[in-house]
Structures are given as C-alpha cells and as structure tokens.
C-alpha cells in the first residue's frame, strides 16, 4: 500500500521508496524506512496532505506520497 492510499486517521510503517530522487528529499525530512507515519489531514481539493512522522507534521503532495510504500 502507498501513503497516498491511506484514509484520514490511518497509519503505516514506511517500507521503501519507489523513486530514488524523491527518496533522498523525503529522508532528509524524516521519512525514514521503519518510521511510523499517520495521515492527519487532506486539503479540500485533495492535495496536499498532512502527515505526522518522527514527532512532527509534514505536508506532502500526492505525487510525493505515492512514492512511499508502507507495510
């Protein structure tokens, strides 16, 4: 399952990334494999989304979220 497929309140554990270039950016922001990530909010038009990871909230575009595979 991908992060972009979660519903509000659902969570998962980051398994891997499908885009190498994007993965570097995401890991710098705290999205590391093994971290628990929870979908907090979705913007009214569906993009961006707010997630909590590593103790803080992070805003991601759906495209970025679709590169994060969850366990």
UniProtKB/TrEMBL annotation:
Supply one GO molecular-function term: transition metal ion binding
Q: Which SUPFAM superfamilies match?
A: C-terminal domain of transcriptional repressors
Record's keyword terms, sorted: Iron
Q: Which domain of life is it from?
A: Bacteria
**One Pfam family cited in the UniProt record for this chain:** FeoA
For whether the record's keyword set contains Iron, the answer is yes
Residue intervals of the Ferrous iron transporter FeoA-like domain: 1-70
Matching InterPro entries = Fe-transptr_FeoA-like, FeoA, FeoA_core_dom, Transcriptional_repressor_C
Record protein name field? Iron transporter
Per the UniProt entry, what species is this protein from, by scientific name?
Answer: Pelobium manganitolerans
The organism's taxonomy opens as: Bacteria, Pseudomonadati, Bacteroidota, Sphingobacteriia, Sphingobacteriales
